[in-house]
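Example record

One chain of 263 residues, shown exactly as stored in the release files.
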Amino acid sequence: MRTYFYGCFVVVMLTLHSCGGDDVPVKPPPTDPCAGKLRTSADFTIKEILSDTVWFFTDTVFTQNSIEFEAVQDNREYTWKVGNDERTWNTKKIRLNFIGTRGTIPIRLIVKNNTVDTGCNPGDKGIDTVTKYLTILGSNDLAIVGAYKGYNVDNPNDVFTVTIRSTEYRGRSWLEIMNINKGCFDTTNSSNLYVNVANKGLTFSSVYTTPMRDICWDPRGVARLYPDRNHVVIHYDVVDQNQDIPLKDKKIRKYHTFKGVRQ
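Predicted structure tokens for this chain:
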């Protein structure tokens, strides 16, 4: 009896399995006829340029830097109007300088698009205008200026303060970064690090002279403010001092990340 029952159970299970329907067709998901058909938009980005590899998306910039404006969407026609300048520009991306300018100016972009689909975007007339405002600052007013107390993430118990300050001498002013790496040009001295400054960050480097070898170890890096403008992160590298030779090879580097809080 037990053998008979087990045999029937196997037969039933095999029968059910054979009806599982591996060959049952699966309907493909419906396609969206409006996928990729965007409403005409003149939105654009503003980028403050320090180098080919370092830039900041922002609407507030340092007067000495190149500023790049770029339309977000591909369109047929572009017309840029910048402040009171009588000129216009007609490419998707433009780069301008505002040396000596202070204050806030309007940046307007008008775009036209000849691939409008009113079925997907009702009311789209194939033209759009966006105006944004660019604020241009001098060195004393930049957000990055300040003192930041923190540590290198590879040695969090060694706390020190990095200062980014404006210095004036004989009618000229410039920005300096002090105490990076630790001990390199403290705030009682002037710095001869080369600094390129933006509103929300900077790059720095040096010439490998005697003080650079003995104290500073040839620092170079990038500092960036967090969105809250009270925290900074500095990615930098210096000559590796663990080399067993008197004159260190500057190509052998150690890499650090400093995180600090505005004081």
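Notes: The domain at 141-262 is CATH 2.40.128 (Lipocalin).
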